[in-house]
Every structure is written in C-alpha cells, then in structure tokens.
Design goal:
Chain lengths: 180, 168
C-alpha cells in the first residue's frame, strides 16, 4: 500500500502538494467566521459594557427589536482612557464621558441637543405614520444602553430627556441570561 | 524475477498481454485540473479579513419599560410618592458595591437573589402584581445595580415599575 503523503509524485517526477485538505480547512474557517462574527452596528458604541443581571429578563435583540427606536449610548470616561498613560480609578469609570447616538457625541452637561435629536426622530416617525398613539405595536422606543459602571446620576438625564422629547416606551439594554 | 517484471529484458521475447482497459487508461489522460491559485489567494484574503475584523460580542437584549407622559416629569419628581408603592432604595456601600433597602424589610438586602425573594413574598402577601414599585437609586450607585433592581422586579412579574430621583 502506498504511503500517505501530502504531496504526489507524478509520472514525470514533479512533486505537487495536495491542496484539497488545506482548501477544505480554509473554507471551514471562513464559514465559521462568517457565522460567528457580528457586523459592526453604528447604533451600538464600542466601549460600553452593559450589565448582566442575575437571571436576566432581557429579551434577545433578534426576538425583540423595535422598528422605530433611538439608541442612546452612555460611554464611560474610564473606558476611553488609555490604561498605559495613568491609573484609571473607579471614579473615572463611574463618570459618563459623553452620550452617543449613531456615533454622534453629546456632552453630558448639555442636554438640550440630545432632547432635540430624540424629538426630531420621534417627529419624523410620527410624520411617516410609523408611530401611532395608543397602538402598542407602533410606538417609538428609547433604548438606554449605558455602561454598567456609570453612576445613576449620569444615566438618569437620558431617561428624563426621553420623557421631555415625548417618548413613551423605553428599553434598557442588558446582557441576556447566560446559557446554563 | 523476469516473469513477474513488466520491464523489457534483453533477449526476452515473451509477449505480455495488455487488456484493452489498461491500454485505454494511459492513452487519453488529459490534465483537466482548473487553476487553483487565484481561488486560494482569494480564500486566504477572506480568511485574513475575518480573522482581523471578527469581534465576538456577548448577546444583548432589552428589558422593556414605559415612560411617563410628557409633562408629568416635574410632578413626578416634586411630589412624594403615595404610601402604597413598594420602594426599593439603593445606596452605595464600600468598594463600588450597592445595597438594597425595601419598604417593610428591616434588614439590608445585599444580593439580587435576596431582593427577588423579598419581592416574591410581598407579591404573595398582597395577592397582586399591580402594586407599583419605585426604585430610588442614590446618585453614585452604578447603573449595574439599578438594572439589577429593575430586572428582579420584572422577574417577580410586577407590572408597574418606575425610577425616581432623590431630591437633595
């Protein structure tokens, strides 16, 4: 019986590699990465670590995703700091650096532009007939996606801004329950 | 040896029989292998792209809630809540951790499981999940604990859960 080898010796004496197993492996890897990777979503800021509550009741996004929504990210100052340049304290993580909607940043101290932005989106959805008062299926949602380390005093203004902009529904982003 | 060998031996005039199947095999052997190099190039480019850009994120979800109607916010903040709701107060204890205090529970609650237990007990005592729950976090409590309190109230199947800010 011939010895198994990664290369074949042809009749002319040429040595050529057997590419088939390598291509098989490569395709398997590509399929894995295509399925496992998540495409970047501009609504979700990178440096936010949402909370994972005990027995989380968060409904996975694939099962519950509002059509009309605005995601407000609350980004921690500590998460943006470069650890190499100095020590990052708990207070840095507790403070919000900025609010972020679709990569546009809003100052923490100045809430008016944030309220205006939310209000514009609500008005746009209403004008398009996508939001109907009293219809639970056609509502505009405010999604609060805050870093779990940020203090309540920096998250509360976002909820308040939603109320002032006339939003009636709010979702709190959290990690879903871990598979047991 | 000469009998089993197919090599022509000088002086050997033995006629070896070659069946037609064997004769066909060697004759029309065309090398039809397509060029694999470009495909492998592209495949490796794709693999490299996915390796470098792939980001494994944990699965996120939403805990749904409702906000008060516009204009109620001032009233909501300035008025003392009615005595009926179950109040959950959050305050910071040492090392960026928070503890929960619940009306009617004389002890400090330190874990979400305990909080859930107390909420379940209260729901059974009242016989209804329609009693409002108001969560009062102090300003410096991490959002993690606020979400935890909200989640435990949802887990205990309470339907009216709200947040309130403490006025200093």
């Amino acid at each position: 019986m011939a010895r198994q080898s990664v290369y074949h010796k042809g009749s002319s004496g040429d040595v050529d590699f057997n590419m088939t197993p390598m291509i098989d492996c490569t395709f398997q890897l590509i399929i894995f990465f295509i399925l496992a990777s998540q495409t970047a979503n501009e609504a979700y800021a990178k440096n936010v670590q949402p909370a994972r509550p005990d027995h989380s009741k968060a409904i996975p996004v694939k099962n519950f995703q509002a059509k009309n929504r605005i995601v407000v990210n609350v980004v921690s100052r500590g998460a943006l700091m470069d650890a190499k340049r100095g020590e990052i304290t708990d207070l840095d993580y507790a403070a919000a650096n900025h609010y972020e909607i679709k990569r546009k940043k809003y100052d923490v101290g100045d809430m008016d532009p944030l309220i205006e932005q939310i209000k514009n989106q609500v008005d746009r959805a209403k004008a398009a007939g996508e939001v109907v008062e009293g219809d639970d299926d056609r509502q505009f949602f405010l999604e609060v996606r805050a870093d779990k380390r940020i203090a309540w005093q920096d998250v509360a203004p976002v909820i308040r801004a939603g109320v002032l902009a006339g939003v009636r529904k709010m979702n709190i982003t959290a990690l879903t329950a871990q598979q047991q | 040896m000469a009998l089993s060998s197919k090599k022509p031996v000088e002086g050997d005039e033995t006629v070896h029989y070659n069946p037609p199947r064997k004769q066909r095999k060697g004759r029309g052997k065309a090398n039809m292998q397509p060029p694999l190099t470009p495909m492998i190039d592209v495949t490796f480019q794709l693999l490299l792209f996915f390796l470098l850009t792939c980001e494994f994120r944990e699965s996120e979800g939403n805990i749904p809630g409702t906000l008060p109607a516009k204009g109620n916010i001032v009233q909501q903040v300035q008025q003392e809540p009615p005595p009926d709701p179950i109040q959950i107060r959050l305050r910071l204890v040492a090392d960026r951790t928070a503890a929960y205090e619940m009306t009617g529970v004389p002890v400090v609650i330190n874990s979400p499981a305990e909080l859930h237990g107390h909420l379940e007990t209260r729901k059974n005592q009242l016989g209804s999940a329609d009693v409002p729950i108001v969560i009062y976090p102090s300003a410096d409590v991490p959002w993690d604990y606020v979400v935890e309190a909200f989640n435990q109230a949802v887990r205990a199947r309470f339907t009216k859960i709200g947040f309130a800010e403490q006025i200093l």
